[in-house]
Amino acid sequence: GEVLCASANGYGKRTPVNDFPTKKRGGKGVIAIKTSERNGELVGAVSIDETKELLLISDGGTLVRTRAAEVAMTGRNAQGVRLIRLSEEETLVGVVSIEAVEDEEELLEGEVDTTETDSEEAVSNNEDTSEE
C-alpha cells in the first residue's frame, strides 16, 4: 500500500507504506511531507493504491478528480509535486480516496441516492426548535 499526503497549497506525494518505520511507545514520529512556505500545512493523508482515484477539494469550491497512479512516487522526506492548481486566495481543504470509475457513462447513469443523512436531519430538527 501507499500513503498520499496533501498540503494546503496544493502539493502532495505518494509514498510506500514501507518507507515509514514502525515506532514503539514514546516514539517521536516521522516526517511524512515537508511543511514549508511552498507547501503549506498538511491537509490530509489517505491510504491508497494505484487502482484508486483522489478527490481534491479547495475552500473556493474547486473539485478535482485524478488517478492516484498519476501522482509521483517520492521518498518520505520530499516536498512533493503539484496536485491541484489553486488561485492565490484558495487553499486545499480536503483529500479523499475513492474507488476508480471505469466508464464515465457509469458515473452519469448511476442511481442517485436520495436518502436523508443524519446531518440533514439534524439541520431540519434545529430549524423546527428555533421557531418555538
From TrEMBL:
Question: For this protein, what is any one GO molecular function term?
Answer: DNA binding
**The organism sits in which domain of life?**
Bacteria
A GO cellular component term found in this entry reads: DNA topoisomerase type II (double strand cut, ATP-hydrolyzing) complex
* Sequence ranges of Polar residues compositional bias: 122-132
Q: Give the residue ranges for region: Disordered.
A: 103-132
Per the UniProt entry, what are the Gene Ontology biological process annotations, in alphabetical order?
DNA topological change
Q: Which PANTHER family match?
A: DNA GYRASE SUBUNIT A, CHLOROPLASTIC_MITOCHONDRIAL, DNA GYRASE/TOPOISOMERASE SUBUNIT A
What this protein is called in its record is DNA gyrase subunit A
Lineage here is:
Bacteria, Pseudomonadati, Pseudomonadota, Gammaproteobacteria, Moraxellales
